[in-house]
From TrEMBL:
Pfam families linked: ACAS_N, AMP-binding, AMP-binding_C
Superkingdom as given in the UniProt entry: Bacteria
Organism per entry: Variovorax robiniae
GO molecular function: propionate-CoA ligase activity
All copies of domain Acetyl-coenzyme A synthetase N-terminal, residue ranges: 4-58
Domain AMP-dependent synthetase/ligase: from-to ranges: 60-453
Record has Signal as a keyword: no
Keyword Ligase attached: yes
Signal peptide: none
Family per record: Belongs to the ATP-dependent AMP-binding enzyme family.
Annotated protein name in UniProt: Propionate--CoA ligase
UniProt domain AMP-binding enzyme C-terminal: residue ranges: 517-600
Length: 636
């Protein structure tokens, strides 16, 4: 074990030599000619001239050494299915899927939108795209038709891969009707839809457009599909994420840089080794699912567990708060990755459940996606007796920005801090107004990253370089730096603390949601004149969305019964259009919203009042009584 500070220093002072070494962790068809081309900032092109393939690195290259070992372990406590695929079997399934996509007209550079529950076919589809150089765009299965439609319209997929249904807590959630509706709403129409039929919900196939996955699979049971060697800078995928505007951004990622970044993180951060098992409880719809359910563990030669279901139900579909720990024991999981909300859910279960299983294989539990509060960290750390490693990053980043590099040096964690900057990331705390770097300990500012950004970081916003530059690289005055849109501080030992978003993004149970998208959906209701949505602290989910609405007519602001009906309608509208994840926890009715004299909504003041905090400077407020109204509504 070396010293992390030396490791970090080399990664930023001698970045090309450092990353040239890391590039040796993956297979190349042609080695890179140039490690970094940073000649057009803020764009960073990594491993220029190299050709490789993510699917080759995740699957094919392991066939000779561990072909019969487990690669993908599927566990669904929703349907009671448990099934393991070896690397050889995964290789076969991915080729069948790739052949099916090719038959439907998919070629290199074409987009394939994947709207799937957590089933193996979703991973097959992602890997099949990577294999043939198609660009996958995975859309979280919890999103509904309007969210899905905007993503179909922006990605313009040739093919959509989907399924009859998902399931949550034993409740079947039909996907196909939502997909049909989304395609109807979208200006772009895919040529074909490839559908997995799990037998959960009836499905009507649209003639000429919809195809049965099992029929095409059978047809291509023995069709070999070799990996297409791709430029390191070829696009591997786009993944939509929310920001300040209502329109989600397609975060675009490369091939070679991503492969190297993941391989390096598996070694230096997660300390996961080939032949072991990795268990991430995330969903393929999020970046953690891309990096650490599908690609990262497989690239490292590990088996990865893909889990469909709640953390509180067993394979027999009976309540079981120990299901995850039973999987750790059964599959000898060495590295586990989850989110603080999931741990808070488990914390409500019987603590004896933890002691019941042999968890001695586990080396560490990584938690990310939202702030990790001290009581939760302490509870799980005492229960498991292994390091709990908070890690901070974003869809844009692709892999951790702040954490502890356990594979380099086992530095201690500090409660409440995700850790220190990871190798390659030049992380700064900047003053929001002046853009100046704040070097004093514990000074609060915007967490920013100086270029050139490391491998694995987003290339750009899909088809919108201007948006990439204007959104991310132009928000700090006088400097071209990447803004994370998170507040943070750094203590005297160099450990960072994240203090929440600087923009209108909220984080519900680790899911990133844009309040503007929710507001747009609510504005569509016939009786809504104005709306403001803010994120409010919640003991279980971190944050929940709360909506304040000025109704067009009626007595919602004064008549409780009218209010209840309208609240129900609004909640249903958001659920139907965006998905249940985006549904506000509460809708409250007011006669006016707090705004500045120039008409800007005072969201931060509303949020502060909802959280019983001081709303700060209110000299610009137009009508102070509007904030008073909210104060009364949310009084404890
Ligand atoms: P996403 O792009 O969905 O991964 O969401 C990224 C956002 O989640 C970040 O910008 C943070 O606001 C928040 N986040 C992620 N990880 C952490 C963490 N470990 N601690 C605090 N906030 C986090």
């Amino acid at each position: 074990m070396g010293s992390y500070s030396e490791f970090y220093r080399r990664s930023v002072d001698d970045a090309e030599a450092f990353w040239a070494e890391q590039a040796g962790l993956v297979d190349w068809q042609t080695p890179p000619r140039q490690i970094l081309d940073a000649s057009h900032p803020p764009f960073a092109k990594w491993f220029v001239g190299g050709t490789t393939n993510l699917c080759h690195n995740a699957v094919d290259r392991h066939l000779a050494t561990r072909g019969d070992q487990a690669a993908l372990i599927f566990v669904s406590t929703e349907t009671g299915v448990e099934r393991s695929y070896s690397f050889k079997e995964l290789h076969a399934e991915v080729q069948r899927m790739a052949a099916s996509l090719i038959e439907l007209g998919v070629g290199q550079g074409d987009r394939v939108l994947i709207y799937m529950p957590m089933i193996p076919e979703a991973a097959f589809a992602m890997l099949a795209c990577a294999r043939i150089g198609a660009i996958h765009c995975v859309v979280f299965g919890g999103f509904a038709s309007v969210s899905l439609a905007s993503r179909i319209e922006d990605a313009e997929p040739k093919v959509v891969v989907s399924a009859d249904a998902g399931s949550r807590g034993g409740k079947v959630q039909a996907y196909k009707p939502l997909l049909d509706e989304a395609i109807k709403l979208s200006k772009h129409k895919p040529d074909a839809v490839l559908l997995a039929d799990r037998g959960l919900a009836p499905m009507e196939l649209v003639a000429g457009r919809d195809h049965s996955m099992s029929a095409l699979r059978a047809k291509h049971i023995d069709t070999p599909v070799p990996c297409t060697w791709l430029d390191a800078t070829a696009i591997s995928y786009t993944l939509y994420t929310s920001g300040t505007t209502g329109k989600p951004k397609g975060v675009q990622r490369d091939t070679g840089g991503y492969a190297v970044a993941l391989a390096a993180s598996m070694k230096h951060i997660f300390d996961g080794r080939a032949g072991e098992t990795y268990f991430s409880t995330s969903d393929i719809g999020w970046v953690v699912g891309h990096s650490y359910i599908v690609y990262g563990p497989l690239i490292a030669g590990m088996a990865t567990i893909m889990y469909e279901g709640l953390p509180t139900q067993g394979l027999d579909q009976q309540p079981n708060g120990g299901i995850w720990w039973s999987l750790v024991e059964k599959y000898k999981v060495t590295v586990m990755f989850s989110a603080p909300t999931a741990v808070r859910v488990l914390k409500k279960q019987d603590p004896a459940l933890l002691a019941k299983y042999d968890l001695s294989s586990l080396r560490a539990l990584f938690l990310a996606g939202e702030p990790l509060d001290e009581p939760t960290a302490r509870w799980i750390s005492e229960g498991l007796g292994v390091p709990i490693i908070d890690n901070y990053w974003q869809t844009e980043a692709g892999w951790p920005i702040l954490t502890i590099a356990n594979g380099v040096e086992k530095k201690p964690s500090k409660l409440g801090s995700p850790g220190v900057p990871m190798y390659g990331w030049r992380v700064k705390i900047l003053d929001e107004e002046s853009g100046e770097e704040l070097t004093a300990a514990n000074a609060k500012g915007v967490v920013a990253v100086e270029g050139p950004t490391p491998p694995g970081f987003m290339q750009t916003v899909w088809r919108d370089d201007a948006r990439f530059i204007n959104t991310y690289w132009s928000s700090v005055p006088g400097k071209t730096v990447y803004s994370t849109f998170d507040w943070g501080i750094r203590d005297e030992d160099g450990y960072f603390y994240i203090l929440g978003r600087t923009d209108d993004v909220i984080n519900v149970a680790g899911h990133r949601l844009g309040t503007r998208e929710i507001e747009e959906s609510i504005s569509g209701h016939a009786n809504v004149a104005e709306v403001a949505v803010v994120g409010v602290a919640d003991a279980l989910k971190g944050q929940v969305a709360m909506a304040f609405v000025v109704p067009k007519s009626g007595d919602a602001a004064s008549d409780a019964e009218v209010a209840l009906t309208l609240e129900g309608e609004i909640m249903k509208q958001v659920s139907d259009q965006l998905g249940a994840v985006a549904r506000p926890a509460r809708v409250r009715f007011v006669s006016a919203l707090p705004k500045t004299r120039s008409g800007k909504l005072l969201r931060r003041a509303i949020q502060a009042v909802c959280e019983q905090r001081d709303p700060g400077d209110l000299t610009t407020i137009d009508d102070p009584s509007s904030l008073q109204q909210i104060k009364q509504l949310v009084a404890p």
